[in-house]
Amino acid sequence: MLNNLRPALARLLTPVGETLARTPVTPNALTVTGTVGVSGATLGLFPAGQLFAGAAVATVFVFTDMLDGMLARVKGTSGPWGAFLDSTLDRVGDASVFSGLVLWFMLGGRNHLLAGVALYCLVAGLLTSYVKARAEGAGLRCDVGWVERPERLLIGLTSAGLSGLGVPYILAIGLWALAAGSTITLWQRMRSVYLDATARADRAKRDRANA
After folding, report:
1. pLDDT tens-digit series, residues 88-140
2. CATH superfamily, region 2-210
């Protein structure tokens, strides 16, 4: 859903990417820095109950991580290794956000139900990404879904940050909404893959029959 904002965000980040292109900073260095920052903030601050600080620091590093693709395009260094590294470390960052929330609910938050919901969001997010990657690897369409990575991070970090500022129930609402949205997204993607695979199989069967 938030992918519609990518053109505007690209225009916003292009000047930053052009500035960084004149430095020795590499896209892969930004990728690693962003992941380390997000992971450190959420795994270090969330379990200690510093939800606002953790969300704020993580958000800064999310934007740092978003610059890697822009910098690669400006420098002309885009390639399969960079794309692979970025995709893999994105999963690490996502898992860190919800792992930090799980730890918070198991420790200071003392809410095992919401710990389970946060854990479900973690697993569902990984599965959502896996389904798309596996489908695209098989040459099938899987470009649907209400809740993708931008939505997961927006909902997770915003609800955690507002909860840290004292807004009641917002983190529970955010996690339950994210769990529901992730479940629907998984169904949407699996259905899309099924329909595409079935249509291709039917076309192949007709082609053999007409040969």
Report:
1. 999 999 999 999 999 999 998 889 999 999 999 999 999 999 999 999 989 99
2. CDP-alcohol phosphotransferase transmembrane (TM) domain (1.20.120.1760)
The CA–CA distances, whole Å, from 8 to 5, 11, 138 equal 6, 5, 31
CB 63 within 8 A of CB 20: no
Long-range contacts, 161-168 (Cβ 8 Å, 24+) = 161/51, 161/52, 161/55, 161/56, 161/59, 163/51, 163/52, 164/50, 164/51, 164/52, 164/53, 164/54, 164/55, 165/52
Active site residues: 90
Residue ranges covered by each domain of the chain = 2-210
Residue whose entry in the numeric block shows the structure tokens 């609800």: 159
